[in-house]
Amino acid sequence: MKKIGVTTTVPSEILIAAGYKIVDLNNLFITSKDYKKYIDIAEKDGFPKSLCAWIKGIYGACISNNIKEIIGVIEGDCSNTKVLTTILEKKGIKVYPFKYPHGRKLIDIKKSLDNLMCLFDVSYEQVEKIRKELNEIRGFARNLDLLTYKEMKTSGFENHLYQVSLSDFNMDHIQFKENLREKINEINLRESRKYKIRLGYIGVPPMTGDIYEFVNKYDAEIIYNEVQREFAFPRANLNEDIYHQYLDYTYPYDFDFRIEEIKKQVKERKLDAIIHYTQAFCYRALEDGLLKDELDIPILSIEGDKENTLDARTKLRIEAFLDMLVDKI
């Protein structure tokens, strides 16, 4: 089966209908035992030190793993992706551009999706057939999410891991469905856990995956992973077709649309506070002030760079933040 790399979540339905195995280059990068080698490859090829580690990691993962085709999201994601795709094209990699239109209009997203279907020579009917298959898997992910914040049986890290994996279904959606089904059966047998502080995690998935275990030490659990949950398309079952499904995806569109869903989840999950994670050198750090203006809830802002574990300073800030919350609750 042909492989195709993706730089973020894209319409998987179209690629699977076209007979591709999807490889999320982000996941390939961050799950590597030697993930820094991908950053080193990019920097040796001229990528500056003052550039997001994710972009460098994506580039290195693509080059090292012999990925010959990628989808590059040139509107609605990282502002550096457009240049990245140009560099990869110069390396002989075939790039298919895709846009999440800025204005978030149905007519525009329909045009963007239809163009992608045309590029991969698949019909709307083929795509809808695959969408039904994938939405069954997304239904399992919704169940796992409910087991996180309602029954407190799923850990914050598991919630993060399984939802973020829906960006490429671990490169095999049929096997991933069975793995997720088995995981949920196992989780259902657990006793509910008790944590005093209910946290939300806002922002791109972290480089520092140990944040989930770290907050547990202070009687806290992350029961809402914002972007990871969007990768899992939690409202896909309510959308009438693929066009509405990708119109209802908050991550690539304007801040006002995104904040509406965050506010709903803060209320639904009874969150006590939020950790807002941004990546060094990322434009999304500018959203921090907007979040604090819009949300009537304590927010701690932290930043990651190249390390995949929390540094001492960030640990100290999280500890102080959680201590403050305990005093208030």
TrEMBL record:
The keyword Iron applies. InterPro entries: FldB/FldC_alpha/beta. It holds the Pfam family HGD-D. Its cofactor is [4Fe-4S] cluster. GO terms for molecular function: hydro-lyase activity; iron-sulfur cluster binding. It comes from the Bacteria. The keyword Iron-sulfur applies. Keywords: Iron, Iron-sulfur, Metal-binding. PANTHER family: 2-HYDROXYACYL-COA DEHYDRATASE, 2-HYDROXYGLUTARYL-COA DEHYDRATASE, D-COMPONENT-RELATED. Belongs to the FldB/FldC dehydratase alpha/beta subunit family. This is 2-hydroxyacyl-CoA dehydratase.
